Amino acid sequence: MKKRLYPAVLERGSRGAFGAWFPDFPGCVAGGKSQEEAIERAERALAQAVDGWVEQGRVLPEPTPIAQIVPPKGSDVAAYFIVGVDPPDPSERVNVYLPKSLIARIDKRAAELGMSRSSFFGFASSLALEWPGGYPRGAPIGPRSKVHKTGAIRAEKAGKKGAR
Description:
- By secondary structure, the chain is an alpha+beta fold.
- The chain has helices spanning 35-55, 100-113, 117-129; strands at 4-12, 18-21, 29-32, 77-85.
- Among the domains are: 4-85, Double Stranded RNA Binding Domain; 100-129.
- It is built from 3 helices and 4 strands.
- β1 and β2 form a beta hairpin.
- α2 (100-113) crosses α3.
């Protein structure tokens, strides 16, 4: 889904505080002691609201043109501003075959980071895809089978039969 631009209303509140709300997302509000703080919190609130709508399978509303916004009576509008938001990418289930020992290590590390296995795979994949200069040569990827040395090659003694 491409970036959406939603209008917000910044209002002056009591004691110099500010509040912000989004006409297209009822209940999506934020406040702060300054305009900057209210706008920053409004941006986070909109991102959370969009995530919630997408998780619920709801279609995102079309942005309301600023000229059509009607503030409630008695509100002290300080400004209108626009917040851009990238809706989350829909997830897709995939089957991946990996060595069990690697899965155990992944699960352990994901738990340490407070992530699910799927979140960890997404995180690790994103890092690998954005690796500066491409994937590094000599990276720790090799065969899955382990080789164990069984001994050194022994040269035959010169005195044995058939030796020349």
